[in-house]
Amino acid sequence: MRLVPEGYPFVIGTLALAAVSWIVVTQGGGAIAVTAAVLFSTLALFVLWFFRDPVRTAPAEGDLVVAPGEGRVIEIKEVHEPSFLRSMARRITIFLSVFDVHVQRAPVSGTVEHRDYKPGKFAVAWLEKASEDNEQASLGIATPHGRVLVRQIAGLVARRIVTDPSKGDRVERGQRIGIIRFGSRVDLFVPLDWELTCKVGDRARVGATPLARARADVRVSGVQA
User: Fold this and answer.
1) How far does CA 157 lie from the centroid of its chain?
2) Burial state string for 126-148 with b = 16 or more CB within 10 A and e = fewer than 16
3) Is 222 exposed, middle or buried (CB count within 10 Å of its CB: 0-12, 13-18, 19+)?
């Protein structure tokens, strides 16, 4: 099973605790030692599962916009996006529980033209106000057919957001762009005239599930494919 590098310290730490606990058990430790060994072993398995990074394959159709995060689509809403799209947009919100894959992947291929980080609160990620109030990092990608914004939002127990690409970098659809640790939310903003291929309640697999389809008949000048 492939793991994200950010998880190595947690995996090594919990596995070490579990190993030491079982050594104590073999040396005659009592019920408390057995309980500790079971708890640390369970924690180690959870950490291994949490930091997994499964291989995902994007659909062959190049105009499909894939899910930037893994979880359940909890809201689709028309909003004004002032920082990158600078227009009305459709916001697709994905809630990531602690049991979901927490790696984020590029929903489209293009050039990173916007990167922003905003400190904030750590409210429950499924609340509407989390999009504005919580700690978050935004990545704007320019494509030949329009602009797309991905927003990584911390949740109640999330305390670290990692965003990999820098402004000016080229990203490919399905490429890893970051990770949020321990329960969070990902907002995807796409132009209003792009066709939706998802609905509220759908389960999304990061880098694989189509959420929208770009307007292939519209091409933005000056943006390379």
Assistant:
1) 15
2) eeeebbeebbbbbbbbbbbbbbb
3) exposed
Give yes or no for a contact between 71 and 100, defined as CB atoms under 8 angstroms apart.
Answer: yes
DSSP string, 118-183: E--B---TTSTTHHHHB-EEEEEEEETTEEEEEEEEE-SS---EEE---TT-EE-TT-EEEEE-SS
Tokens of 142: 């320019």
C-alpha–C-alpha distance, residues 25 and 23, integer Å: 5
d(C-alpha 138, C-alpha 196), whole Å:
21
Task: Tokens for 71, please give them.
Answer: 């979880």
Q: How far apart are CA 188 and CA 24, in angstroms?
A: 49
| Annotated catalytic residue within 21, 109, 131, 184 | 184
138 is known as an active-site residue: no
Chunked in runs of 10, what are the mean pLDDT values of the chain (225 residues)? 82 92 87 91 88 85 94 96 96 90 93 90 58 82 96 74 93 93 86 96 96 79 57
How many Å apart are CA 220 and CA 36, to the nearest integer?
59
pTM (2 d.p.): 0.83
Tell me which amino acid residue 199 is: K
Q: For residues 123 and 153, what is the distance between their CA atoms, to the nearest angstrom? A: 10
**Side-chain half-sphere of 190: how many Cα atoms within 13 Å?**
26
